[in-house]
Every structure is written in structure tokens, then in C-alpha cells.
């Protein structure tokens, strides 16, 4: 960013010019407010800065000398030590004193978050001192601290109430996400495994390895291609399967509708894990009941192509009830006069379905289809509990024929401790599924109506 652009940004944020009060608050929080004779605000901003200073002092060797012989950087205050550890990811291995790289990374992220909060308060402090001074020079009136807090409470009540939740979310939700993201830029694997070893920053080399190294390249494109195919076919089949059963059951010629709905919803009521483990044994090539009944030796889960087809069939059995109930609810809310008017115009039942029912239905469920696609993209349970990713594929790195990206990531972390590449894959999944979902959502009628 150029100096000119930086100056424009500063003026837009703080104001057209810096006043004496603004400059005082620039160097010491609350000093400008004290000059403006607003003691309550001055105390608030100064105490906020003082807390940070005390944290740094009380956690340093100035107060706690530490253990004799410990590394110099262990005596730094919290913020200096955390930022130093974040940059270096540790300096000492073995012996009595040992750095733990992941802990240093987390502490560094925490320190950055806290400093960002301080930076926001610092900017608010400068802007407040500046505007109060300018307003006093123009009107001759000085807003009291009590009036200020009353105004803030009235105009920013929503922000005040939600602030604790937002701050909690910053540390409970955002921090783990950032930590997982940063692992992709390190060499954290089975050969550099903390706390026994230190890890180092390696930049974008892990991303480059996906394209440069033949094994990683073929595995990524193979697994990613199957993942997209799996997500699309799983969503497509369960959607149209659910629609088919909903239309059939809603037909006026069908009797005992409640009984049929109850039977068809049972697969959804049973926990998926239980169903999948039953199917895994039922489809076993050697002793499975299905092969014994057929008197055949069909490799339902041991042939690459057949295993993928089996996955889709089992997922169809599990997923259709959800879409069936969803479609049933939507179909019962349709305006019947549309069909009466279509019948008067001579439309057949098929024409009424494809020209009236399906377009209206699709416009209402498109957001849910996008969510279903995203869910199937990361449908860990079906693949893990039914095939375990198999059958074996010796050409892949830490993956097998039916592995999707999420199960591949599981293998890399749980079985092989390749955390850096697993993090890379997580980022690529986010980019891929986020792009597809946003693109589809923006094109949906539901978004256009909003």
C-alpha cells in the first residue's frame, strides 16, 4: 500500500486531520480524553492499555526469574515470547528445556488476536478523542462521559450484547481454524513430529508438491475426481429417488399412505453407523449372507468399480427417506388451482408435473440441494464404515480406490501423521466446495428472490 493510499485510509478512519487530543491518544490510550476533560473515558482506555502492559511485565523474567539455565527467549513477556515463538516455531530440542512447536503456534495466534483487539480499541480511542475535540471547538459543548455511555448504549446496543459472544467465537472457533490452516505451511509430518521434534515454516512448498510429485499429483486428482462424482451422484440419486416415492405415495390411488411412509422412513430412523456395519457384513465376499444366498462370489466391496456402485446404492437407501419426507411436505402445500387450470387447458399429468410441480419444487429445494451436495462431499461415515476406503490402490499416496478427500485426510492424520498435507487438502476442499456451493447458490431462484 502506497503512502498516499495509507494516508487516505487513515483520514477516512480517524478524520480529516489529527488534533492535539488525537495525537495524545495516539501515544497513550485515554490521554486525549483526559485533555478533553472526559475522565471516565480516559480511565477506561488507559486501564485497557495498562492490562496489556501488566500482562507483559508479570509474565516476563522481570517478575518471575524462571529456571536457571533456561533459554533467553523463555524469559520474554507473553506477547514478545508468543510472537517470537510463532515466527521461529522453537529453537531448543532435547535436554531439559524443550520447545513445543504447535503450542508456540497456538500462543502466537492467541497473541495476534489479543493485539488485534488492542489495535481496534486504540483506533476507537484516537477517533473518539479527535471527534470530541473538533466538536468542542465548533460548538463549545463538551459531551460528558455519562452522556457518551448513554448514547453508545442506545445506538450500539446490539453490538454491546453480541460482543462477548463474538469474542468467545474468535478464540473458540476462529483460532482452531487458523491453526489448522497454518499447519499447511509447515513440515509437520511423521519425520517432524512434536514434541520430540521441532517443525519449521516451509511456505507454499506443500501446495507445490501436489503438482510436482507424481504420487501426490495422481492421488489428488484421482481422489478429487471421485469425490466430485460421488457428491454429485449421491445428491442426484437421493433427490430424484425421494421425489419419485413422494409423488407415488401422494397419488390419490395409493391406499395406506401412513404405513408406506413409515416403512420408507425406517432407514432414516436407524443410526447410519449401525446400518453401514450391517451392510458391510451382509455384502462380505467370503461369508456374506447375500453371496451365500446367490451362490456366487461377487466382490461387492473388493472390486474398485463395484465397490463405488455399492456405495452409491447403500447411500441411496440411507438418503432417500430424507428427501421423500421433504418433498412430501412441499407437495402437500401446493396450490391445487394450478393443476385445475392446467387440466382445463388440456395438460396431461406428465405435463403438469414437469411444467408446474417440478419447477416450483426445484426453486424451493435448491438451497437444500446445495447443502446436501456439500454434506455428501464430506460424507465420511458412508465411505469409512462401509468400505474403509478400499479396495487397496498401490498407486495412491495414503489413499485407496473409494476414498474421498475427507477420508484421505483422516488416513493422513490418524494413520500416517502427515498433518501438513492433510491441512493442504482441507484448504483445497474448502476452496473447491465453497466455490461450487456459492456459484450454484447465486444462480438459484431462492437467492434471486431475496
Molecular structure report:
The chain has about 450 residues and is mainly alpha-helical. The protein has two domains: about 5-205, no CATH class; about 210-450, Orthogonal Bundle (MetI-like fold). Helix content is about 70%, strand content about 0%. The chain is built from 20 helices and no strands. The chain has helices at about 5-15, 20-25, 30-35, 40-60, 80-90, 100-140, 145-155, 155-185, 205-210, 215-250, 255-270, 270-280, 290-295, 305-330, 335-345, 350-375, 380-385, 405-415, 420-445, 445-450. Helix 16 runs antiparallel to helix 19 (about 420-445). The longest helix has about 40 residues, at about 100-140. It holds the Pfam family BPD_transp_1. InterPro entries: MetI-like (IPR000515), MetI-like_sf (IPR035906). Part of the ABC transporter complex MalEFGK involved in maltose/maltodextrin import. Probably responsible for the translocation of the substrate across the membrane. Keywords: Cell membrane, Membrane, Sugar transport, Transmembrane, Transmembrane helix, Transport. It is a multi-pass membrane protein.
Per DSSP, the total helix count is 20
Distance between the termini: 36 Å
**String of helices and strands:** HHHHHHHHHHHHHHHHHHHH
What is the rounded Rg?
Answer: 31 Å
CATH superfamily of the largest domain: MetI-like
Q: How much helicity do the residues have?
A: over 70%
Q: Structural class from helices and strands?
A: mainly alpha
Could you name the ranges where pLDDT drops below 50 across 5 or more consecutive residues?
A: none
Strand content: under 5%
Main location: membrane
Transmembrane segments: 42-63, 103-124, 157-185, 223-247, 259-279, 309-332, 353-374, 418-442
Protein name: Maltose/maltodextrin transport system permease protein
Keywords: Cell membrane, Membrane, Sugar transport, Transmembrane, Transmembrane helix, Transport
